[in-house]
Records
---
Amino acid sequence: MGTRRHDPDFGRLRTALMGGTPDRVPLWDRATSGFQAVYLGKKIPGVLGEIEFGLAAGYDFVRIEPPVNFTGGIEPKEGRRIGHDPDGPAREWATEGQGIITTWADFERHPWPKPEDVDYSAFELANKHLPEGMKIVAARGHVFTEVWELMGFNTFAMALTDNPDLVRAIFDKVGETVCKIISDMLEIPNVGALRFNDDLGYKKGLLVSPEVYRRYQFPWMRKAVEICRRKN
């Protein structure tokens, strides 16, 4: 498995995303690091493994998401649930009750991440090893997810009615930070697209009312699109 290589062509993916007809259907969804190791028959950590796997499996891009910690290392008030995968390590689940930011005092003293401190070394490493024709898809979104995880989902849901100004303030703080990171990422050479990832629903419906997304989430998605358009 994983012994063949292909000639990547990011133009193929771009053509498909822009509504055209490429020479073949491009791959898009990302494989887990565990699957990549099985496919390649060896484990290559980090971005070099992503590139090697992409060449073997037929991808035209490597996906990179810079690490950004919105929690500041603070534990939620009700802790986090730990689940155990029988085939892997323990998995950490976000708090459902009271999170890190439940009051204005929490908001004011929270150690918010600074865009200028984000580590882009994975992009630099990728650019040293990217084969001709392959580009980087920069990934960063999670505005909605960061907000409710910071508050705890139950607290977030109640605050939509009881404390909408606090909800708005957290969305604005997270959204401004994410959009600055997006703008910085798109200045990096060979970044060909942005993946604005977020979890807004599940198999039976949305997580919250559509109006919540229209009011708080979609404006930041629009701003991300505007940044991409300015960068072509």
---
Amino acid sequence: MLKLCFGRFGVDMAKQRIIGIDVARALAVIGMIIVNFKVVFGDQGTGWIKSIASVFDGKAAATFVFLAGVGLALMTNSAIRNNDMDRLKTAQKRIAKRALFLFVVGISYIVIWPADILHFYGIYMVVVLLLLTLSQRMILVATGSFVLLFPVLMLLWNYEAGWDFNTLEYLDFWTVEGFMRNLFFNGFHPVIPWTAFMLFGYWFGKQDLHNDTFVKRAFWIGAVAFVSIQILSLLSVSLLSGGDAMTAQELSEILGTNPMPPLPAYMLNGMAVACTVVSACIILAKRFPDSTVVDAFNKTGQLALTFYVAHVIVGMGAIEVIRPNQMGSFSIVFSVLYALVFSFLCILFAIVWRKFWKSGPLEWIMRKVTN
């Protein structure tokens, strides 16, 4: 049984596992599939489908990273609280090995999937590993520091360096300078500031997630924060642009909630969404523990690593083989519909697979390699 990031999460002492976390992970993976499929296949057309699909941009991935932080907390809470250094060292070694595993897996297929998050993910984990024993207040300070450091770096460095934004190709990725710049500053999910999502998730996971009062409060705070940030962002752009479309577009890059560049409005928005979604899933899964739907998403979340890699290798690969000349020019309807069908097949696979095995295929390999 995996207790970290992609598998089941352990809980302290005799407490029951929090099913809602796996449910939230399933939703995050499905959201990432929708976003990535429309980026790769195309989003031609307009209308309500495109508007709804755009809601997932950057938010699903943020929730995915947030959940990893929750997993790290649940894996280490007992050892830290009891000052059990032997258990903590064992957990730290396992985290370090899994961070390396994910980094290598991500890099190994980045040629076919440049927007991979796994190699970034591995570095986030290393950063959190170094900060595991900080007080909860200092964890929040570290979270805020990562968020605020990015705009400072943008003043010092050129965010567009290395990019051809017309093709979304990073021209000098395989040079030392380009790789490090992409990894830490201006890649799809740069360590600065994206590590803040995992740190915030780590803080969240150190709270009592069995406490209904805390979880409900977290849900409402997250929801209100999300709506407030969206409104403030839109109003700021509208008022400051004075109705000029070009000025509004430029201001949206600074005050908007788009993931690139990941400025504070986006980061806070992503944290709010993650907190809201995870809290809602914990509440619903606890209220409907015998629900077939909850059980299906629970099993799907336990195979998140497998499905993340499969959506690239199998999901994207199949269309590239069948219709290579249409890549990037499909309609938004096709991209979203295909993402939903693929996600449904993932859910069915998870239900069947979990009847016979406790871990997903890649989750099993990670456990064997890193334990």
